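[recover] target loaded
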């Protein structure tokens, strides 16, 4: 769920996590980076292929790794022209939760659920094709993955960073000039605590989305005060339902700062006690 997005943000999956996820999902192919800092995800996947019967293909992005296909080589092939026709009820992704109480739980998501949820948010948040969206959240979680789908809907640009660090985020903002940032309160707090927040170039920013935990008032206010041409957007979501509730740019300032808004069209939420 989005509530624990920070738990793996600074810890790329290693051997134990990959072994569980690849075996549990019955994955046939693994695509990963040849090197991420001092670690080779593809190197581990090549070794795991000997243990996991279903895993028959490993593809590396970056430098070549023995035992893996190079993505650059695969891109030279002619595109496949006999792909199946997909329907809204077809399986889209096996989305794993953060595993806060044990191993991650695989949540099967249909195309219609994921795509319609993102499409509605695109309209509510007034995304346009000129937008440049930067996610500080990892793409192994719903939050980061959702941003990619949203940008595809309108033909916008998704600015990618391999791993969040406060200086790295600052550099990405300077380089890509994003119009929207998806982050959690800890990201903003890190910039504030390190004295980087005042240096952040927010001229192009229309919004910064906050999710993951209850957003502290001072963080929401800091974003509102920083973005002269934009605002804070609060989002509540879970792997099981995608975006369950959020604020919108048209909402009053006090609503954007103090609430997670309301459910998108077609979704109903209720408050239930633990019993």
């Amino acid at each position: 769920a989005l509530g624990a997005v920070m738990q793996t943000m600074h810890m790329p999956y290693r051997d134990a996590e990959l072994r569980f996820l690849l075996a549990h999902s019955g994955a046939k192919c693994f695509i990963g980076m040849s090197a991420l800092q001092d670690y080779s995800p593809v190197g581990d996947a090549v070794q795991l292929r000997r243990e996991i019967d279903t895993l028959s293909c490993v593809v590396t992005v970056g430098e070549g790794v023995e035992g893996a296909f190079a993505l650059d080589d695969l891109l030279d092939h002619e595109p496949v022209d006999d792909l199946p026709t997909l329907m809204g009820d077809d399986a889209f992704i096996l989305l794993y939760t953060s595993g806060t109480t044990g191993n991650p739980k695989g949540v099967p998501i249909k195309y219609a659920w994921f795509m319609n949820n993102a499409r509605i948010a695109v309209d509510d948040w007034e995304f346009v094709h000129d937008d440049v969206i930067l996610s500080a959240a990892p793409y192994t979680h719903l939050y980061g993955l959702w941003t990619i789908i949203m940008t595809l809907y309108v033909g916008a640009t998704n600015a990618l960073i391999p791993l969040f660090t406060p200086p790295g985020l600052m550099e990405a903002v300077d380089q890509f000039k994003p119009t929207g940032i998806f982050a959690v309160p800890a990201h903003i707090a890190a910039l504030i605590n390190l004295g980087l927040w005042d240096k952040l170039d927010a001229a192009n920013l229309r919004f910064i989305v906050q999710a993951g935990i209850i957003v502290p008032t001072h963080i929401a206010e800091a974003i509102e005060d920083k973005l002269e041409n934009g605002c804070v957007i609060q989002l509540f979501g879970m792997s099981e339902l995608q975006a369950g509730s959020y604020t919108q740019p048209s909402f009053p300032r006090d609503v954007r700062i103090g609430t997670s808004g309301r459910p998108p069209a077609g979704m109903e939420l209720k408050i239930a006690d633990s019993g």
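[recover] notes: Residues 111-124 form the longest helix (14 residues).
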